[in-house]
């Protein structure tokens, strides 16, 4: 590892310099070659530089791989814009093949040699760390809903789109709303389950106070994080925003009320119950009203009781 550390960094620096150079269409294929070569090397890089002291090299390689992918996407976008900006309005002699047609088709033919790489870089969904899954579903819901409302408000658009496809789009934004709720709230509601709280001893059974305290702490932390981030997210349509809040409340509030009703006494009989039961049902109802307004809120929930 020590022997090849220096040359490896030099090699990565070269790839990094290429990834940040000026983006022009003719560079795409060399960048894709570099990307594929580095991708093939990643297992060896992880193996050779597996020691904790070499973590920075593994991180650098992964970052450069990501930058090369971003450069390829950017170049393809530049290529598209260059075609759209083509100013030629002069008819070609005798109606023959336009030079732009020839250039574009030759370019696309070359791209086809990199079909799998391009599919991974462009068609595939963002990786788990690069975009919040809940936010991705919310984005899809907002945008498809906007399209549906525009089409519904225009007889001409509606006729052009057709009711069958409009129905498909409506289903798509509703599915995105469902996916958002699943991605966000399943893990929050999971804290309010009974499993793992009960203990048995001899002829009696009871509730583990330690497990219950941890469960309340986990719920508080998760809900506070969701509240903090998703208050800054925005649903511009008032009706859609209200519908989603109601749907969240219908899942969250009864589950929390039930959990609180069953286990409140176990916490209140111990020390510092306020550290674990931080919120009333009314506090959560108030907090849900902050969601999707598009502006930051206090890091702690507003407590109606205060």
Written overview of the protein:
The chain is flat, with a radius of gyration of 28 Å. It is mainly α and 306 residues long. The protein has eleven helices and two strands. The protein has a two-stranded antiparallel ribbon with strand order 1-2. The chain has two domains: 2-124, no CATH class; 134-288, Monooxygenase (Up-down Bundle), CATH 1.20.1280. The chain is 68% helix and 3% strand. GO terms for molecular function: phosphatidylinositol-4,5-bisphosphate binding.
Q: What is the N-to-C order of secondary-structure elements (H for helix, E for strand)?
A: HHHHHHHHEEHHH
Radius of gyration: 28 Å
Q: What ranges have pLDDT less than 50 throughout 5 or more consecutive residues?
A: 124-130
Give the beta-strand count. 2
What is the CATH class name of the largest domain? Mainly Alpha
Overall mean pLDDT stands at: 85
InterPro entries: Cullin_repeat-like_dom_sf, Exo70, Exo70_C
Organism: Punica granatum
Protein name: Exocyst subunit Exo70 family protein
Domain Exocyst complex subunit Exo70 C-terminal: 131-289
């Amino acid at each position: 590892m020590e022997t090849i550390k220096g040359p490896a960094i030099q090699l990565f620096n070269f790839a990094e310099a290429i990834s940040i150079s000026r983006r022009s269409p003719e560079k795409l294929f060399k960048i894709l070659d570099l990307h594929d070569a580095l991708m093939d090397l990643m297992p060896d890089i992880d193996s050779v530089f597996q020691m904790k002291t070499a973590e920075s090299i593994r991180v650098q390689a992964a970052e450069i791989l990501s930058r090369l992918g971003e450069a390829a996407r950017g170049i393809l976008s530049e290529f598209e814009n260059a075609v759209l900006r083509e100013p030629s309005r002069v008819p070609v002699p005798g109606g023959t093949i336009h030079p732009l047609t020839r250039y574009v088709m030759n370019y696309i033919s070359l791209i086809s040699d990199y079909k799998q790489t391009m599919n991974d870089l462009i068609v595939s969904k963002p990786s788990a760390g690069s975009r919040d899954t809940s936010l991705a579903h919310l984005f899809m819901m907002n945008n498809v809903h906007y399209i549906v409302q525009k089409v519904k408000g225009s007889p001409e658009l509606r006729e052009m789109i057709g009711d069958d496809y409009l129905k498909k789009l409506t289903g798509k934004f509703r599915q995105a709303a469902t996916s958002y709720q699943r991605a966000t709230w399943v893990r929050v509601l999971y804290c309010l389950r009974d499993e793992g709280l009960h203990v048995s001893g001899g002829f009696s059974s009871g509730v583990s106070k330690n497990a219950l305290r941890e469960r309340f702490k986990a719920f508080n932390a998760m809900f506070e994080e969701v509240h903090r981030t998703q208050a800054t997210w925005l649903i511009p349509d008032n009706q859609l925003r209200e519908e989603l809040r109601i749907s969240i409340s219908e899942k969250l509030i009864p589950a929390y009320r039930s959990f609180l009703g069953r286990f409140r006494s176990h916490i209140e009989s111990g020390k510092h119950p306020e550290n674990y039961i931080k919120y009333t049902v009314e506090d959560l109802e108030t907090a849900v009203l902050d969601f999707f307004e598009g502006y930051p809120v206090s890091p702690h929930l507003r407590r109606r009781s205060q």
